[in-house]
Specification:
9 strands; two-stranded antiparallel ribbon; 2 domains; globular; about 200 residues; alpha+beta; Glutaredoxin
């Protein structure tokens, strides 16, 4: 094998290694940067008028009046979103009667595929307090950006695609102000303790 060919293989292998490391580290970097930037109570989120998973109009007023949890994702998500929503469902159920004091929303980052009817069907697999939010693509983008959400389409075979995105659960006080985030991979009891602080 020629020296140039060997060098090309080494460079290609090194490039693949670097890209793999970036892929593994990016979620934790995004999480750390977000929590550092918004480590104290802050007012995040833009005004919006969208549709919930029951087909009703919903605005930012839904995030005020009761403690609220938010999670941004999409129904075609293979692992992270269902795992996060399952964890959130278990946390809500652990609240017992106090779960009635908490609102929970799953905001799609894929409104092209996630209509309110699709969200409605998808969310039947999780705690019934979790309400979906969808609507016009541009409005969803503005809302996600206002919460500091990273979101990027990743092409797959054919016309299919996935979405890389921030996978944090946002905790909001009853005045709608952001308090902190938790991760679906965090210790369950510690996450439960943080949610109980909201109530």
């Amino acid at each position: 094998m020629k020296i140039n060919s060997v060098r090309a293989l080494i460079i290609a292998g090194f490039s693949i290694l670097i890209l793999s490391l970036i892929g593994l580290l990016l979620p934790s970097i995004l999480k750390k940067n977000f929590q550092t930037q918004y480590s104290s109570e802050a007012k995040l989120g833009a005004s919006f008028e969208l549709i919930d998973s029951n087909g009703n109009k919903i605005t930012e007023a839904a995030f005020v009046g009761s403690p609220t949890v938010l999670f941004f994702g999409f129904t075609h998500c293979p692992t992270v979103c269902p795992l996060a929503l399952h964890r959130l469902s278990l946390l809500i159920e652990k609240l017992g009667k106090d779960q009635n004091k908490l609102k929970a929303y799953f905001i799609t980052l894929d409104p092209e595929r996630d209509t309110w009817k699709v969200l409605n069907k998808y969310l039947t697999g999780f705690n019934n307090r979790i309400i979906g939010i969808t609507g016009e693509s541009e409005k969803i983008k503005i809302l996600a950006k206002s919460w500091g959400i990273y979101s990027k389409k990743v092409p797959l075979d054919g016309d299919n695609y996935s979405i890389d995105h921030t996978a944090l659960i946002f905790l909001l006080k009853n005045n709608g102000n952001f308090l902190k985030t938790i991760d679906f991979e965090d210790d369950f009891e510690l996450s439960l303790k943080e949610i109980k602080k909201l109530l």
